[in-house]
Amino acid sequence: MTAATISDPWLAASQGDVQALLALHERGVDVAAGDEEGYTPAHLAAKFGHAEVLRALFRLESAARASVSCCARPYGYAPAHLAARAGQVDVLRALYELGGAARDSLHAPSIQHEYTPAYLAAEAGRLDVLLALHGFGGAARQSLHSPVGPHRFTLAHLAAQVDQVSVLRLLSRFGGDAREALRAQAGPHDFMPAHVAAYLNNVAVLQALHGFGGAAQASLHMPVGHEEYTPAHVAAQAGNVDVLRVLSEFGGAALASLYGHTGPHGFAPAHVAAMAGQNEVLQFLYELGGEARASLHAPAGRR
Predict the structure, then answer these.
(1) Which residues pair with 224 in a beta bridge?
(2) Is the separation of the CB atoms in 235 and 261 below 8 Å?
(3) CA-CA distance, 290 to 296, in Å (whole number)?
(4) Per-residue three-class SS string for 120-173
(5) CATH says 223-303 is which class?
(6) Cα separations in angstroms, 232 against 3, 28, 198, 245
(7) Which of 30, 61, 98, 190 is deepest in the core (most CB within 10 A)?
(8) Phi–psi pair at 4, nearest 5 degrees
(9) Which residues, in sequence order, are CB contacts of 251 under 8 Å at separation 6+?
(10) Cβ(241)–Cβ(284) below 8 Å
(11) In what helix (H) or strand (E) does residue 90 lie, and over which residues does it extend?
(12) Does the reported pTM lie above 0.85?
């Protein structure tokens, strides 16, 4: 199909056909219009990795230029969001080089859920995108550790939620605020990434946090929130025996958290499991023996 026969600006953009898109523009076709989902040709160009299309649109009149960084309904994603989720690093570099609103879109939250491009990249495990955003510096780098979304989670929390261990390793490598996010509290329960992983039974995440050492490792036994629950309490409530088993294997403070009493009520994980009817957890604590078994008959309130 040639530029003379392409009559759809979205098709031209998705195929990276700059000549066809410019020809449509010269014929009076709106190359900044949104489709039934609100996506403009710029969105499709970003999704399919056609940075040259975005550069061409940017050189046109104000509406076409604005489409390079505008948000589309219903989720309010800009082209940068689609590029990040699809791993289109060349597109992100082009947006950075264009400057202004195009560069700002690299860290802008979406309208509906306030997801940043970094957030979508982390969810999809796009490490190359996270590396690029880190390399851009400034606000783009800051988005790697800033809380976003309805739960005000950081990328570390999201990675713990969706079991993206490679993302956690990358954040640890970045150091600074990105590494500090590995133990940051966020969300309605002030959870750290370790608590999120414990709740969702993501054992590999806990093993990674243990391997990082320092504050990330310490988060495996830290109490948080009003109830001052540790990851062991959260796992006991959810019935995640695999989490309790791996915490016991870590030894030290992680092991001690399996029978430690915390919070305003002085509950141990055994109390939480009993209230939630998690009999498998109680059986595991019994089989573990020692203080874990003793916690099955210990009164609440002992700290």
Answers:
(1) 229
(2) no
(3) 11
(4) HHHHCCCHHHHHHHHHHCHHHHHCCCCCECCCCECHHHHHHHHCCHHHHHHHHH
(5) mainly alpha
(6) 62, 63, 7, 10
(7) 98
(8) -75, -20
(9) none
(10) yes
(11) helix 89-98
(12) yes
For residue 208, the one-letter residue type is A
CA 278 to chain centre: 29
Per-residue pLDDT tens for 57-82?
999 988 999 999 998 877 899 999 99
pLDDT in tens, 114-168: 999 999 999 999 999 999 999 999 999 999 999 988 888 999 999 999 999 999 9
User: Taking the domains of the chain in order of start, what are their residue ranges?
Assistant: 223-303
Query: And the tokens for 70?
Result: 């505008």
| Contact yes or no for 236/197 (Cβ under 8 A) | no
Number of CB atoms found within 10 A of residue 237's CB: 21
* Burial (CB count <10 Å: 0-12, 13-18, 19+), residue 30: middle
Dist CA 120 CA 86 (whole Å): 9
